[in-house]
């Protein structure tokens, strides 16, 4: 009975706008809570790469879930949602084919974040176009890894190369003591 009342209220323009504001507001509150929790957890971690990714993904998913629930409540948006889903499927195939290298680096970045073969601050040996170099890991993102060689030059390596190369860890990064 109450759901029928909500759907009837959502049929009007004012009702649809009201529910849109409510869903957006709730999603925004959840996103703010996710950001606060991320900052608190980050204080206790040495490497926040995975945390940053999970936080950003959770924020996007929160807004997406809010929109899907909103679209499900508004009858006129259900048909539009179906058409958008079909269009998004075709677009995702085209984008996937066009961005194979980028997506390969992204998947490799996931692998590096999950399996952690090295950490920020580790010194590794890597085979590069100029030969084997010794470099310290400065940044690990989902697309590429930034190394700093012995001459303080930045060496930017795609993650697909980092995953497919044999790396030799010369030294580990010193562990950071978490603040109590």
Question: What are the salient characteristics of this protein?
Answer:
180 residues; alpha+beta; SH3 type barrels; 2 domains; 5-stranded antiparallel β-sheet; 17% strand; elongated
What does this molecule look like?
The chain is an alpha+beta fold and 180 residues long. It folds into two domains: 2-98; 118-171, SH3 type barrels (Roll). The protein is 62% helix and 17% strand. It contains six helices and five strands, in the order αααααββββαβ. The chain has a five-stranded antiparallel β-sheet with strand order 4-3-2-1-5. Helix 2 packs antiparallel against helix 3 and helix 3 (49-73) runs antiparallel to helix 4 (75-98). The longest helix has 30 residues, at 13-42. The termini are far apart. The mean pLDDT is 82.
Can you give the mean pLDDT? 82
Question: Tally the helices: what do you get?
Answer: 6
Rg, nearest Å:
23 Å
Tell me roughly what share of residues is in helical segments: 55-70%
Structural class: alpha+beta
Report how far the terminal alpha carbons are from each other.
52 Å
H/E order of the elements?
HHHHHEEEEHE
Cross-sheet strand order for the largest sheet: 4-3-2-1-5
- Which consecutive residue ranges, at least 5 long each, have pLDDT under 50? none
Any idea what the shape is?
elongated
**Number of beta strands:** 5
Beta fraction of the residues?
15-25%
Biggest sheet descriptor: 5 strands, antiparallel
Q: How many domain units?
A: 2
Describe the structure concisely for a colleague.
By secondary structure, the chain is an alpha+beta fold. The protein is 62% helix and 17% strand.
